[in-house]
## 1
Amino acid sequence: MSEQQGDRLQKVLAQAGLGSRREMEAWIADGRVTVNGEPVELGARVTAEDVIRVDHRIINIKPPGEAFPRVLLYHKQEGEIVSRDDPEGRASVFDKLPRLRGQKWIAIGRLDFNTSGLLVFTTSGDLANRLMHPRFEVDREYAVRVQGSLTDEQIRQVLKDGVELDDGLVKFEKLMDEGGEGYNHWYRLMLREGRNRVVRRTFEALGLPVSRLMRVRFGIIHLPPRLKRGMMAELGPGEVKAVLDWVGIKLDVPPPQVSPRGRGKAAAAPARPRQRTASKRGSR
């Protein structure tokens, strides 16, 4: 271990896909991480020669050519949870993701049990942190169907004054009327936060129960129209680089020239992704 050479330990752990840098800093502070058998402090630097352990498990520092992150898009269905552990044994989106060696998939934002749409997964803790942390104010866009219609006063409230919820004020950045039939009405909205069930709770506070909710965009990543429910597609290296550039992450390694077998493209724009239906393992 060197105090002058190498990368900061929390950065290395985040790049290994173990979590965000903030989470890694907490692990180091809690004494869960050792380097060459010794406890370390925040700010320590490590190189490929160092032996890093988290909870006594060795973490391999990948060589530069393997450090480029992966990003996977999944069209979540209603009736799935975004968690690895569920006492009720419900179907989990993590059961359906490709298996990784020495890394793990990190969900960028969550969707509740009855919400569908775009879920983004990555192996980069840094990227996950940049897209999720409230201080970065990344846009989330949703299509929502409610029972009833917003009045002009309610539209002004959600866009200008905000709606007071139990955990604070919420405002929509944009709100578009998408029409509807009968008692149901569709809206498309955009906001810059990810509080638990914030869209549903906002409409319920206005007396309009939500009957369907779908996320269609997260930052510059759109839900591809061809990506049907229960299907996934992986971004190509150029698309991943575009996302990294957008959030301001600069890597020391170039994107891989050839995508590993099985990777497809699922750009925010015109690319046609190679898609596959998620495995049924773990669902019911």
## 2
Amino acid sequence: MPEKKSDLLILYSTVDGHAKHICEYAQKKLADKKEIAIASLDDCGEYDVADFDEILVGASVRYGYHRKNVYQFVTSNKEALDKKKTTFFSLNLTARKPEKSTPETNPYIMKFLKKVGWEPTIQAVFAGRLDYPSLNCPNRLAILLIMAITNGPKDLSKVHDFTNWTKVDEMIDSMMALS
């Protein structure tokens, strides 16, 4: 008898690890409901999207853009993704503002999905985390400038976590309802 296919493939693209953290959180919450494979988009070559019923892609934004590997993955797998139940979340600090905290109002998710021509079944936006202490000097200064312009946090000694875990749980609940 052939081995059963995994139900859910979770893929993430992360700069500082927070998108991975959210994907691992989703994996734990869904583990008793689905068979799950999880990987970075940088290391997902062993998986074929066609082998899964559902796909979750989580991606962070840095300096206004999702990483190139997200664009490449979606564009090269778009035909298969369009036939699946899909979830996409964008992780960006702009979403810390209530007026930019939904897929319909967040400029980064709207721009990304329009550019790749993809309509995931479920879309979510989370504000994420700003870890000043772990940033190198040029990135710390660049992000500090952006935060000064956008009235964001400026305390360089702290990790500022804006993740709304209730919204993350709502996305996961929506994924459970797809099955």
## 3
Amino acid sequence: MITPITWLLLAISFVFSIIMAINLGANDAANPTSVAVGSGVLTIRKALIVFSIFVVLGALIQGHAVMKTIGKGVVPEIEIAGAFTAVVVAALWIFFSSWKGWPISTTHSIIGAITGYGIARYGIWNINLSVLSKIVISWLTSPLAAALLSIILYKILIWAYKRYGSEKLERALPYLVIFSVAFSAYSFGMNDVANATGVYVTVATKLGHIPDEIAMLILGAVASIGIIVGGLTVGPRVINTVAYRITRLDLAMGFASGLSNACVVYLFSVIPYYLFGYGMPISTTYAAVGAIIGAGIAKERKSVEYKMVGKLFLMWILTLVVTIIATTLFFSIISLIIPP
């Protein structure tokens, strides 16, 4: 029998999950949109409108691929108290970072929180280290892949400029940049919707006796709304950081980095899902920043603000440390009140 306090925890944690989605939109809306804003193709408002449309499509059509990984992949099972602890810690950290204008990894935040919960609840050796190790590897390889692809695409564009002339390409590039925003937003919705609601897949199945597919569709819809709200309200604070403070983007750089980011996020979500049964919850922030750095290096190495890149890297490391430790301690306290 489920006690009243358990239902209260479930209700509070679900509210925090919506807050988490809002925070996610606030921090990560910059990932797909910054290339269009930084290159001058779209205003922040117009870029966010494109983002809002395609993030919903990605979340509803293919969001289940990564949601399954977070909900049932890293730890054996996430109970109500665990879901409550993970989303509260992750949401508070992301809110603080967004308020400061720091483009952190929301994926790191929720995976770190779930890992901290798993350590406190099951012990470190009962965490699915195979899945977790693949996630960590994807965190390292995705920004490198995005940077490399961005360099290649930029070089191809410059070659096309010289071979076929710049007039036609210059007319086409703004539309190509907008396409990259739409594709990137779709991939973002597909990958990052799990950060807000993936912890509830098991909870919804157990308490509501809802099939996984239906539960993930409902959770994806709820998270999409929160992501849009966060993107439209607080999102511009982080967009300005990514769009202008890493390097100065022109149209060719905007397209190369935007398309690279979109391709990497999409492929890391889809290919592992078909090979292993679960998509990789990569950091879309890592991929976006990696792609922009790659474009900057391709044009001129000195154009990249390496000091800012170093600060972002330190914040990403701090995100894991804070969320793991905070969730481990918080869940240990919660467990004294409500035994598992």
